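Before drawing any conclusions, I needed to go through one protein's amino acid sequence and its backbone structure tokens, quoted below without any editing.
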Amino acid sequence: MVDANRPGRTLAGRDDELRRLAARLSPGAPGQGSVIVVRGQSGIGKSSLLDTALAALTDTVVCRGAGVPGEGAAASRELLARLRRAGAPVSDPDDFAAWYEGFAAWAGGQPAIVLAVDDVQWCDEPTLRWLSLIARHATRLPVRMILVRSAADGPDGVAERLADLESWYGTEVLDLGPLPAEAVASLAREAVGSEPGEAFVRHCVEQSGGNPLLLREMLDELGKVAAGVAPVAGSAAGAALIHSLFTGIPDYARSVATAIAVLGGQDLSLVARLAKVPARTAGTAVDLLRSQHILAQEGFSFRHDPVREGLLDALDPAELGRWRRTAAILLSDAAGSPEEVAEHLLELGELDSWMVDLLRDAASCACDRGAPWDALRYLRPAAAARPSDAGLAVQLAETVALLEPDSGFDLLRRALELQQDPSDRARAAVKLGRAALVARRCGTAVTVLDRVLTVLGGEVDQQLRIHLEGLLCLVGIEDRDSLPKLDTRIQPRTGDGPEAVVDARHLAVCAVVAALDGTRPREAAEWAMRAIRGYTPTTDDSAVSSAVLALLLTDEVDVARNELTRAIELVPAQRSEYLAFRGLLGHWCGDLATAAADAGQAYALSRRAEGRTGGVVPRIALATVAAQQGDTSKAMKLLREADSPQLWDHTVMRPWFQLVDARVHWAAGDREAALKLFHRCGESLADVGIANPLLAPWWFEGACLLAGEGEFEAAAELAAEGAEPAARWGTPRAVGMSRLATAVATRGPDRIALIEEAAGILAGSPARLEEALAEFHLGHALVEAGDTAAARVRLRRCVELSLRTGDRFLLRRAQRTAAEAGIPSEVSPLDSLSPAERHIARLAGRGISNRVIAERLFVTVRTIETHLTSVYRKLRITGRGELAVIVGHVDDRPVLLEGAR
């Protein structure tokens, strides 16, 4: 294999990576994994790997571009130019929709197309958006995309766009690591012309870190070594290297080089002060070091890291400590960033008091930039130097909790015991409560927080006490065993209205308690709305879940969705759980496509961070959608993954898990187990005093399923379980579901009227899935009564709702019922669209461009793109080609219900 950038040299140690690329890029490769991202540090061989992989391709249109610092659009211009030369009808990347259809037609006629972008981190945000659009739209085309990136910071917005593209399900990430020893030996053999000795290879690995660029620079410029003759191992090797390089160089120049090695590249005045030479002398030394190829020609960095390391190794530990201490003082006096100074302090054995304070400041800076792992590097030596510092112990524990919630929670418990001041103790307890919600240690936290509140008495500020009480209640609600202990704290006081409570956490508690109690929907909604207006998720998101649950149960779904979206954007640490909750909300409202997308993304995120609270909720959310769509095996697998001690302590998710589990067992044909699970779900709710009939409506699910099997008496018993609670809660969803459960369990002439009444009530609620189910049962009942004309209307309405919600399972049931009754139906696939979407879909399906459609309708092109994205999602298609087929089919003739004769 020949490295294209270095003719005559072998590309060593990358056989596995080349095979992976060949499998993805060659003609006929499977469609999944249409984007490959190659990542690695500078000099690790990314571009050489790309050169070799592309050179090996045959019968493939290869279009390659490269990002250029300061010229973000360079790559897109180069790619478009190469595509045009290859015959593709492409134009301005900003007008993607205008040329993509022609591009897709051209691409479909090619054996394979590879779009390669080197240094993609230097591309601008529009270029990455354009690449992302191609990747997502071209999944069924023979188009592969390979993006090469390093860790360098590119233009604003690029890092986030790259992260989104890397997390897309169609992307495969290939991380290039250091070369193995065998590959280093191969390159050394090429350099010295004969077989190198084992010790020499080991030395090369240690000094270069397996970086091909640094290794070759070492072999080329630091001198060839005789075959099999190794440098002296360890620090002596570094000393020998330094001695060789600095022979004949004045002592002042070596002092300047040492100062640069310690400071890591600073302005000349600091280097001069650390080296204890005049600034003019330091400048002369830098020029000399550059002329000897020791320093790079620009800035204050060494051409080779081994030289810097050798200078530092040549100092004895005490002397090196003095250099670093002086460097830290100079940087601090020069107003250097806390993290910059901290890097020098980490190398010291003993820390002064001011150094500990500075390490704490550096840790705060690291957390602010989203790097808690760096914060821990600063805090651990600080805590070792000052073990009795209560504030430092809390800071360390809180930082650990960001990375390891369980360990952080335990550290916070210990730090709490160090607090002497009542207010500090209360604030530490607040941090412990928030950590408990993430680590799912709610039962333990309730005991600790309750004890703290009892001991504090009236010694702290009233607002802080109210904050702590509200947090205690929020934590307690999450743990089913703690609810009885907190009954007096959790229950709103008699006569308390929404206006009597001011703390956001207490408001959320009042809202969720009123909702779970199933008695005061108006107050629950108002409390919840006031709660979400009273906190900022970036500083404290502890009330989000409770407030959203109350809003959900009171059918304030738009407010709940907006709050979850806000939390998803502002609280990255909890993004998995909030995405899962939004997926459950989508299911609740009958938008299964969005629900599946949110739950799927939450599941993917949770698998990257096992052990966090997101592990249970995303699995249950995804299982809920899978069960609704009839994918029993997938739902059962996800439920088994979620079945854990975390789940069984969860107040809300445990009964919902049992409800979904019952659905899955019923679908799998295990009716006996399903009925037991339905009843167990009801018992779980009763055990913790949850009386709201909607949280996990086991009675409704069981009644409808039993009635469908003709077991009307058993169905009526279950329907009766929910009748009184539903009437007491009184929302249209609750009343409509109760009436439907009673109606399907009824035999005789009143059955049709009762189901029709239930369908009418559900139509006035967000319960689209339940409304569709009511229309199905009404159509089925009318078929049995012989009224096929009326049945046709109701079954058509069921099909329309099922298309809109994405409930394929109910759609098939409705189609089968209509077919068995011999009822044809003029149901169009476009009926699931809104009027605006339907109109735009018809125009686009006839080949009219987005720009022309926008001009006709007096809207922007972006508006048309947004509508078409929604159309593709609802119709489950990927582009205009499929849309044209559907529109042509609809325009020619009506679509009959599946199976109609």
Remarks:
- The two ends are 64 Å apart (CA to CA).
- The longest strand covers residues 143-149.
- The first helix runs from residue 15 to 25.
- The chain has a mean pLDDT of 80.
